[in-house]
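It would be a great kindness if you could assist me with a short task in structural biology. The matter concerns a single protein, recorded as an amino acid sequence and a row of backbone structure tokens. Could you please explain, in whatever detail you think fit, how the structure tokens follow from the sequence? Thank you for your consideration; the sequence and its tokens are set out here:
___
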Amino acid sequence: MLSQEEFPRVLVVSHTPFSRISGTAMTLSNLFSGWPKDRLGQVHTGNITPSTEVCENYFHFPPRDHYLPVQYYAMRMLGWNGRTPLQQSRPIAAVHAAAESRPAMAKAYAQLRATADLSPIRVPATLTRWMRDFRPDVVYSMLGSVRLTRITALAARTCGVPVVPHFTDDWPATLYGNGELLGRANRAVQEAIARLIRLAPLGMVISEPMAQEYARRYGIPFSPFVNCVDETYFAAVRDETDQRPTTELAYVGALHLNRWKSLRDIGASLDRLAEDGLSVRLTIHAPERDLAQYGKHFAHLGRVRLGPSLASDEVPAALRAADVLVHIESFDEEIRRYTRYSVSTKIPQYLASGRPILGYGPAEVASMAHIRTANAGVIVGTNDTAALAGDLTRLCRDRALRSRLARNGTDFARQEHAKDSVAARFAATLRSAADGESVRQLT
């Protein structure tokens, strides 16, 4: 681990500030765990109250400040409140909701989203002074949009320091891939990324396959960093000699990106298995907004229960209460391209919990490969309900199999995802970027 003086001064640019309110924010907080607070600053665009657990030095850069005045007031006249992201304004949110079932509305929403993302950025003098006064050694960002990529590059150029981009899904290859704004939106994505990469001595990604692909694609070295977990998540493997009348499955996570469809498949399989005498139940813990939007799709399933939304400190207990943990991804072609290199925030948490995993989603996506590498679960890699029912039956009835998979997962999590070791490697990588070194010197 670096000494206090060796930690670089890092300016983090993001939408969501350090907090525990989302998977991205939690990953960010875990990776920067133990960082000297006086060597960490953050510019965030979201109207979210930041936590002081990791960082105390913030600059809130809300939409009102980074849109041009003519844009800002025009959008306010359309019903935007000026605080939340433009995509959450009433008119655009209404289009988004309609887009769930109407392709024409989906296209309209994509055009509106692209227009907001590509619009010019205004940088107030107060932000420029704040960034320069902080005197960072390096700028770091998880990016996610053209607008945030441009703000990140601007921060690095303003401070005269390198930038380290961290890609957690393959949005550069999929964002605006349907010809939004007559193709201009996708070109803007590629141009913004290319300009940012010229400022980056190295990059970060979320999986080893992504590191290999991005090194080939962008010509700089990339190092994989997944979410890491502290001791509160590690648990003993369940004593399978203690038989319970019902096998409890649990899913903790979001339902968007059509993940609810894969969960619905599992629920339908459980109903069929129950008819054959297998007592099993799935409890879904999802954000309140997702439960309100997608909960109706599970109403007819007798073996599915919609549990409460969980705060971050409630997750470990929910994982331990289950016999099997469920991870799902969408089989939709466009979405599987987006998630193909991603490893969900919850996968390290699942592995550490001492419970086996049922993975249901495309076999090629990195999250499923991660579970296979850990030998911690049963993967159903095709959209085949018969195969799903068969593997569910095997996992529910074979207690020895569950114990073996759970033990493998815990061992793998200690080796690969323990917070202290991952955070130390993360800090050393940012130090090397600040010094202009190659990440290859650290491996």
Q: What stands out?
A: Residues 399-416 form the longest helix (18 residues).
